[in-house]
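Hi there. Long-time user, first ticket. I'm pasting a complex I've been working with (about 366 residues overall). I'd like to know whether the download I got is complete or cut off, because the file seemed smaller than I expected. Thanks.
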Amino acid sequence: MRPTPLQQEFILHFGEMGSRWGINRTVGQIYALLFLSEAPLNAETITKALNISRSNTSMGLKELQSWNLVRLKHIPDDRRDYFTTPEDLWEIVRTLIAERKKREIDPTLTKLRELEMTASGGDTYAEARISELRELIEMMTGFYDDMERLETVRLVKLLTLGSRISGLIEKAGGALPALAKGH
Amino acid sequence: MRPTPLQQEFILHFGEMGSRWGINRTVGQIYALLFLSEAPLNAETITKALNISRSNTSMGLKELQSWNLVRLKHIPDDRRDYFTTPEDLWEIVRTLIAERKKREIDPTLTKLRELEMTASGGDTYAEARISELRELIEMMTGFYDDMERLETVRLVKLLTLGSRISGLIEKAGGALPALAKGH
DNA sequence: CGTCGATTTCAGAAACTTTTGAAATCTGTG
DNA sequence: CACAGATTTCAAAAGTTTCTGAAATCGACG
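Hi, the file is complete. Here it is re-exported in full:
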């Protein structure tokens, strides 16, 4: 399977962006290829399309599976594994955010709580700073959890509210946490 | 300046997380040290506190400046540069999101628009997939721009609305974009 | 239970990033 | 305009990650 020029350019871009996104070039390229392919692809096809080694494909697919970014399909009378990305882009976004949260935020939240537990009170500024950071991260991940639970239709409505959002917030009222004191 | 045990542990954690956050160990450590220091620090102090080379400090600070994550201060009758992180955590979050958007999202948005412009119509599925992705990214970055413009007090109110958010969205009404069709 | 295609693991080679110390540059002051 | 302190640049060493081909493992089928 030779990628079309459009696919090719998209694939190369994902490969280049990979390092900024915390994945390597091949993983980015494999994902890009699957994303643009209507039919599921097997490892051999991916290897040839991207002109990489078979073992590299294997590792890349394993990595994508660990991110929950690909789905496994089976084709009757073919024992090879076939891979796709979900059709629904919102599902992809939810997965991406959930996985990044798990890798980039949760370990720090755990560490901050741990540091607060064992803090001795002898380092006022640092302790205050750590608590404030922990509160802020909790507020943001809490909001994310609420968004996560919304059906897509409502989420899209919220995302497209634009400037109307401001008035809406006021009407809702409610008590204001200490952290809002930032200017 | 020798860091306290609390600072030390926080600094080491930021160093380890650095690679997941797309910065290197030293950059993470320098940031952590500045974040927990009430007073601004100069390069020499940072070098000694983290036990790294002077040139490494210089490069780390340059990197942090390119991310707009540190502020430069000057102390009367001292010509060395002193560095701090902003007191206001919300400002830090805004900067972080803005910079990550600039590095991780904007180049892809540009590329997707470019691909749509030059697409020939000969690759229906891939072209539809690319347009859909571009629309979704635009919707999300548009929402981010709206959030960006909110004063902190309102932003915090929104973040802490919790389940009340759902009813609120319904009241607002408005037309629903095609992308909401994801289930 | 041996064969065969498919997949994974692994150790080393290649590529890339980080860190350093030394040298170069910059900047304010006498 | 020279000097002294401060900072940056640079080339090379150290460290890390990615990629490969060869060998090991898996698993369905006869």
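A couple of notes from our side: The helical segments of chain A are 5-21, 25-36, 43-50, 54-66, 89-118, 124-149, 152-159, 164-172. Chain A has two domains: 5-84, 89-180.
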